[in-house]
Write a structure and sequence with these properties.
The protein has four helices and six strands; from the N terminus they run ααββαββββα. With about 180 residues, the protein is an alpha+beta fold.
Length: about 180
């Protein structure tokens, strides 16, 4: 393959790996999240350092205390040398905590990763999560508004979420006032 085309393909596959991580974490989809890591991967993540499967257990337990959470990925750079890449991906995390004393957590930082291409698949071999800032605030939506949204949209942290619907079809109708 043309070297420039190979580089573009590698960059797309590496970025796709980052997106699998974020979506897998937000949907609590273990299979999807695990696909972002190679066997033997180590994650150093805000107080946890260890093997990927232990990290996933730890992260799902933490996110289990929240009613909703989202990971937003932004600036992304990748230095690729053969079958190894070093990346930096900026993130913003927003989580609605089930503890009323801490209803909204917002933090930002960077994922510093070493990825490897093994058997044609790019995945994380080592990760360090750097938290650079964090804020806690109260949600501006009253509980009644959140309850209403639950009745008109399927938002879930599992495969019942609308994002898993294949083929996607809109079956609900609403009239405009």
């Amino acid at each position: 393959m043309n070297p420039k085309l190979q580089e573009l393909c590698d960059r797309a596959e590496i970025l796709d790996c980052m997106h699998r991580y974020a979506r897998g974490m937000d949907r609590l989809d273990r299979k999807l999240l695990r696909s972002a890591y190679h066997d033997g991967a180590i994650d150093d993540h805000v107080g946890f350092v260890g093997a990927v499967d232990d990290f996933i257990d730890w992260a799902f337990e933490y996110h289990g205390t929240q009613t909703r959470h989202q990971h937003y990925l932004m600036n992304h750079t990748a230095e690729i040398t053969g079958d190894e890449a070093h990346t930096e991906t900026y993130y913003v995390f927003v989580g609605t905590d089930s503890d009323p004393a801490r209803p909204l957590i917002i933090s930002g930082g960077r994922y510093i990763d070493r990825l490897e291409r093994r058997h044609g698949r790019w995945a994380i071999a080592a990760r360090v999560c750097l938290v650079e800032w964090q804020s806690e605030a109260s949600s501006q939506l009253p509980p009644e508004a959140i309850d209403f949204l639950d009745t008109v949209q399927t938002v879930a942290r599992d495969a019942s979420d609308t994002s898993y619907d294949r083929p996607l079809a809109v079956t609900r109708t609403m009239s405009n006032p």
